[in-house]
Amino acid sequence: MSLESIEVTARFDLQGQVYPLSLLWKGQVYPVETTGRRWQAPTGLHILVLTANGLAFELCFNASEGRWYMVQSSTDRLLA
After folding, report:
1. pLDDT band at residue 58 using 50, 70 and 90 as cut-offs
2. Is the full-model pTM beyond 0.90?
């Protein structure tokens, strides 16, 4: 697993829950249509998202750094 730093537009609700709204990846903006499973890991809060054009991404928000990352597995690199 590797982490690629990316730009994410997100909102936080009153309880502090974060909701990604869009992500900028390789020069293109992908609006987030829905979010799925989320879990806390040593690298940060991981959130599965589905974009408006049907692409799925695993995002990671590292609150201590205030940064977003895209998680890439070894199979992602094989398919690229």
Report:
1. very high
2. no
Per DSSP, what are the bridge partners of residue 10? 20
* Sequence spans of domains, the chain: 2-71
Instruction: Say what the alpha-carbon torsion angle 21, 29, 74, 2 is, to the nearest 10 degrees.
Output: -70
Dihedral-angle region of residue 76 (phi above 0 means left; psi in -120 to 50 means alpha; beta otherwise): alpha
Alpha helices for the chain (secondary structure H): 74-79
**Per-residue pLDDT at 76 exceeds 70:** no
Query: In degrees to the nearest 10, what's the CA dihedral of 12, 47, 4, 7?
Result: -30
